[in-house]
Amino acid sequence: MHTSSTSHLRQGTRVRAGTPTDQLVAMQDWGDVEQSLDSNGSAVLPGLLSATQCAQLAALYPCDEIYRARIVMARHGFGRGEYKYFAYPLPPLLDELRYTLYPRLAPIANRWNRQLGIDVQYPDDLDAFLSRCHQAGQTRPTPLMLEYGEGDYNCLHQDLYGDHVFPLQVAILLSEPDKDFSGGEFVMTEHASAGQRADVVSLRQGDAVVFTVNQRPTTGKRGGMRKVAMRHGVSRIRSGHRHTVGLIFHDSR
């Protein structure tokens, strides 16, 4: 259901500065975002999407023709609920967000790799990075939409998909807490030699969370850099339905 490994690439075109999507992203306090990512492994982008945009995206969930795969979590031991991977081309709003967010996050990802002693640097634009993925056989799109009902949850996990992994990803809450659903908190855990920690990230409708895919650097007790492993998941839905969009920047095998 997906297109060839190169036909969807923008080949030099970019989201123009000053467009609504670019303005939404530029309005965020990226200094605070970087500080929060360094400290906690996650950061909230408040009000990234309007309630109308959230409703329009959530309404796409039943449209099977725009997806390449549907995953029922219980069949794979992932939890309960389901999600669908979009096919290329992505819905325009998600495509624009992916292209606009990537260059904001690439400098952070590159700094983290340097601090961890990882000899991988990410190009400035998403097309160049996707070309790198596709040359390695990672050609399938990874942006997805998740749907949870009462009693559903998502086990703690990491979205890796291949050898080429961009270390940050974004999830956007499309549903309104305490109206459309209750429960269903976004959860992150941190595991290091010094111990473990769990954080609940509070989100409102239209908020996005940027978070660590796999591992991030942190300062050890003696001042040197050490790595901590991060996982993410969603707590049990107590009532209603919850929809979320996930923007992963590397493609899959």
Automatic annotation (TrEMBL):
<keyword id="KW-0479">Metal-binding</keyword>
<keyword id="KW-0408">Iron</keyword>
<protein>
    <submittedName>
        <fullName>2OG-Fe(II) oxygenase</fullName>
    </submittedName>
</protein>
<keyword id="KW-0560">Oxidoreductase</keyword>
<dbReference type="InterPro" id="IPR018655">
    <property type="entry name" value="DUF2086"/>
</dbReference>
<feature type="domain" description="Fe2OG dioxygenase">
    <location>
        <begin position="139"/>
        <end position="252"/>
    </location>
</feature>
<dbReference type="InterPro" id="IPR005123">
    <property type="entry name" value="Oxoglu/Fe-dep_dioxygenase_dom"/>
</dbReference>
<dbReference type="Pfam" id="PF09859">
    <property type="entry name" value="Oxygenase-NA"/>
</dbReference>
<comment type="similarity">
    <text>Belongs to the iron/ascorbate-dependent oxidoreductase family.</text>
</comment>
